[in-house]
Specification:
By secondary structure, the chain is mainly α. The protein has 6 helices and no strands. It has one domain. Helix 3 crosses helix 4.
């Protein structure tokens, strides 16, 4: 079912916060982190971050770097979500959002 409601109304009507608190779904912010460049998550993310993307270095942009961080930092815990296997668009910035640059000047775009 497709909804034309605003993201806030959609979240409220789906009781997502309550489902997250009951641990029925994974951390919603984490899902948005992984799906930053895939709609409708982009809209949710924009609303959460007050109309802008988060700092470029915190944007999910590299599978090898995320994997490496999980291996070395016990506080950096991630999970593979079904979208990782069934939604290849989540790795492509097909809408050409300006996601910024990391400290070494590399432009954030598609997930590599």
């Amino acid at each position: 079912r497709t909804s034309l409601a605003s993201p806030k109304k959609l979240i409220r009507s789906a009781n997502m916060t309550q489902r997250w608190q009951r641990r029925e779904i994974s951390n919603f912010e984490y899902l948005m982190y992984l799906n930053t460049i895939s709609e409708p998550f982009t809209t949710f993310y924009f609303n959460l971050q007050e109309g802008k993307f988060d700092h470029a270095s915190r944007t999910f942009h590299s599978i090898p770097i995320s994997w490496q961080n999980c291996q070395w930092d016990s506080f950096d815990v991630k999970e593979l979500i079904p979208e990782s296997f069934s939604l290849p668009e989540m790795f492509t910035n097909c809408n050409h959002y300006k996601l910024g640059r990391v400290e070494d000047g590399i432009k954030i775009d598609d997930v590599v």
